[in-house]
Fold each of these.
Amino acid sequence: MDCGEGVQRRVLAESVGLGNEMTILITHLHGDHVAGLLGLLQTMSLSQRRKPLNIVGPEKLLRWLKVTSELLHIGLTFPIVFFRARPGTVLRTPAFRIRAAKAAHSVEAFAYVVEEYGRPGIFYPEKAKKLGVPEGKLWSRLQKGRSVIVGGRKVVPSEVTGPPRPGRRVGYSGDTRPSASLARFFSGCDLLIFDSTFGQKDAAKAVDRKHSTSVEAAELARKAGVRRLALTHFSARYRSTAHLVSEARRVFTNTVAASDGLSVMVDYPAS
Ligand SMILES: [Zn+2]
Ligand SMILES: [Zn+2]
């Protein structure tokens, strides 16, 4: 999600395989969100990436990529599959889908939600045995949510499995003012990563520069009913982010400050 100047260093430090299946989401065309993209693409080429790379972003991003790679004579070893961001579902992979919504920033900007598909409910073998369903193919059909016929009787998945389990949802705001529509968009996210450029005492600057304060991020997280909030995009004016976090926690307890290399486990929501 976004590709600032330092991204290559982080990618190497975290040993992210550059040849892996990958989708890059770009929220908007400000330097701190795209400056690292060309370098990253070139490094992927140097490591002989062959797999297509998904890039999601505003329409202008594709223009910028085309023009700069032409002017700089950059040839890539892999195809880019570009998905233009617009409100709604922008990309589906076998494992998840990505939805976009308009953000409220000084240039065209989008927020994203990465959403896993739901999984069928937990399978109870004893129930299947009781109904006379023989172990094997028929069990796996039921586990996948399909009905089977046993001795002329139809057995439906709900007879032998628990309720369907929802997938996990991660939201990312990019740079934005908070808004009611974003609160709806991020509703029920298991993790929300939200713009937290300013502290309360600089609230006027947040309005002026079309960013959010950590308290505004927390208020939105509460409205949206998310499970956890990660604050990000802190202004360089603050030596420490501790006060941004404590201001936010007064509104929304389950808040952390994102930082380089931080890893956060996203648990499955209760079904
Ligand atoms: Zn920006
Ligand atoms: Zn920014």
Amino acid sequence: MHNLFNTLKTFDPGGGRQGSFYSLPALEEAGVGPVSQLPVSIRLVLESVLRNCDGKRVSEAAVRALANWKPTETRTEEIPFVVARIVLQDFTGVPLLVDLAAMRSAVQKLGKNPKIIEPLVPVDLVVDHSVQVDFAGTADAMQKNLEMEFRRNRERYQFLKWGMQAFDTFKVVPPGIGIVHQVNLEYLAKGVLSSPDPRPQTPDPIYYPDTLVGTDSHTTMINGIGIVGWGVGGIEAEAGMLGQPVYFLTPDVVGVHLTGALREGATATDLALTVTEMLRKARVVGKFVEFFGPGAAALPVVDRATIANMAPEYGATMGFFPIDAECVNYLRATGRSEELCLAYENYYRAQGLFGMPKKGDIDYSQELELNLGTVVPSVAGPKRPQDRIELPNMKKSFVGAFSKPVAENGFGMKADGFATARVEVPLNGHGKSTIGHGSVLIAAITSCTNTSNPSVMLAAGLLAKKAVERGLSVNPVVKTSLAPGSRVVTDYLNKTGLQPYLDQLGFNLVGYGCTTCIGNSGPLAAPIEDAIVKNNLVAASVLSGNRNFEARVHQNIKANFLMSPPLVVAFALAGRVDIDLNTEPLGTGRDGQPVLLKDLWPTLQEIRDLMQAALQPDVFRKLYQNFAAQNPKWNEIPSSTGNVYEWDRQSTYIQEPPFFNRFSMQPGSIAEIKGARTLAIFGDSVTTDHISPAGSIKKTSPAGKYLIENGVTAKDFNSYGSRRGNDRVMTRGTFANVRIKNLMVPGVEGGVTICHSQTKGSVGYAVDSSTGKPGGGNVANSPSVYFHSGKDDATQMSIYDAAIEYAKTKTPLMVIAGQEYGTGSSRDWAAKGTNLLGVKAVVAQSFERIHRSNLVGMGVLPLQFKDGTTAQSLKLDGTETYDIVGLDENLKPQQDLTLKITRQDGTVDEVPVRCRIDTPIEIDYYQHGGILPYVLRQLVAKA
Ligand code: SF4
């Protein structure tokens, strides 16, 4: 405990108690900086920097620098941010636990105590990503999906149970409870935290803000209740839990001044889609966004959380709402203790941080205006969340997209084929139906984004009720599902009597988890899938999620529209997306009259009348306790014991990763890369899902073949996401998305490339000798010399097979890409797989924030073309070899390097590229071959 600048003060946390805290007003009084004018989000980070100032990890200079944050200046300083806790979901959490287990094994091999690897901050993992919609539209769908989930994931869940007993601060919320961000909002988040004061004779606890990082992009949802937190890659989260600060470049903070109120008919989802479109245009990538003003103050926390959830979609690091009385109301309504609510309010009052800022209170880098009264019912799609469409324009927009070129986010189909493609499909026991372009085949009320918000969930229920009362029904070709992010939703949909109406339309409960939002939409009926594929139909999904990239929702559904839960119900009723819901009926009522959307749309007052049922503190307390007792299936899973995991070489789910093979205490050196080949050349907006898909595994893919060779039948493949504990599957799955387009193989979709094999080899490092695979160990930094000679045979093959071929000649590899490389969900396997394929550098026009840092965290060099330079302008086709010149021990953040391109005819071009290792600590990570070896060396050296 320090008392730097005399900032260690006491305050009254309520009830006659006393607590200590590091006071931001005292920091300002000490003349360190104009703290009270800083954005609230910056002040919360500043508190962490001040409290954790130890002269080593966090310096006094870092406190001074952040206290003097300026709205506009060149950003060069990195902030060392020590977070209070970490949240994980299972897709990212299992591999993270695998890495921790591998670190323990490595420490044991070095003859040290494996317990030196231990999370220093509380870690909560919520198992939410594994449930799939195999069953839907029936009363027992939820139970059957849960059973299937446990059957498929038993090995992973056993492993999680080992982790729970091996690590002191690692807790698991088992399957069937909810979605990580909703569980965080409703239960895990405390708003203010306290720890015992380590000083002798000081019985009072020390209080500090609840801050976190999570291994899921939508961790930002917690910004809706004034908590600083965002998504990071699994490798950064591991470093965070092992006591390393999360480093990030000092951000600009964009203030969004909200005024007015939502009008009748507009929902929080419409607002979130409007904000997404507006902030994408404002280019907030890598910035903090802070909402303020009277409109923000009037929004309930659940609406704020919906907007905050979509920060990754607008590109911001956070979408933050400051702390005010509404936050305290929400904490009370969700069953948090009175003691906590008092401490929360009093703490932030003592920090001068309580209350929604007004215009002029804070100096932002940029201010934007939004009048909530201008928000209208909207959807977003068919391919990107920022492409908002006002509801009346939906038909025109979809029909237009149908024949637009793919490069303009269209489907590149012939316009005259739109109306003619009608295909008859048999229905399981229900006769026949017809589908065509624009048919809605998936309608999912899904995702924490919206299911955390009772106003839109109640609206969906009310709309269903009115539809049923008018005699409408949903065509059985539409796969309907309801997957809330917590059991509280079921409680209030039952109490309000709305669930039976949703059931009648097929929106039966299918589980409490991510489901369709993460792509676990499950199979469609076989004749329907056949009809789509054979007739190349542009069929549609409608979902209340936040992402709609190609192949995210379902491999064969090309058009995906994000919308509010009531609109999901409406489009399910309509059965098609080429419809103007303002003028065309959803169907015909039992009275023979057409039923329009406006006939069914609930009023704000109808929703308000039911809201009381949704926020009952006792319900939250009852449902968020003793999870194990409420989950017999979880209890049945056996757990192994011990501090070091006993790896099972037969497992196809959990394998010891090769990251610490040949680990030594000496880091490598930084050296030039020579004679590299391109594994792939991509266009713009390649997502992490393209790079490392989460969804289903094809039988004919390298990963599918590997699983079959290891005795797994196709029906038990499960998804890539669930197999992230096995590097053998994940390396084979890297760049294996069925929709990825490698421009080296024009016109072909899927993970293929042209391999230019050499008849003579070279000297280098790309193979992990212990596994016989490319990659592994500290591959990025070994000194190396490469040469190529002899005949160049160009062969088309899978990207994985090509990597194996190149590994035989120890050829370093590169990937070349366009704008926004690595956009989409944070996914550390997108960087890990890249590393394990032997890729040494990715050259892109621009990078998504987390993916760039993950690449560095795995020892892969991110390089950025200078403005105007692209693979196309350089006429690259994959036949070239490359040297990266200027890379040496003196590397500086964002230094310019030279990309030397040697073409097949022997001509050479040299182009400048910016090294996107952005901070000094990242240079250390790169030199060490990534964060994990860096942290491991630090911990072993201290032990
Ligand atoms: S519901 Fe969607 S946004 Fe929420 S955690 Fe799951 S995948 Fe992420």
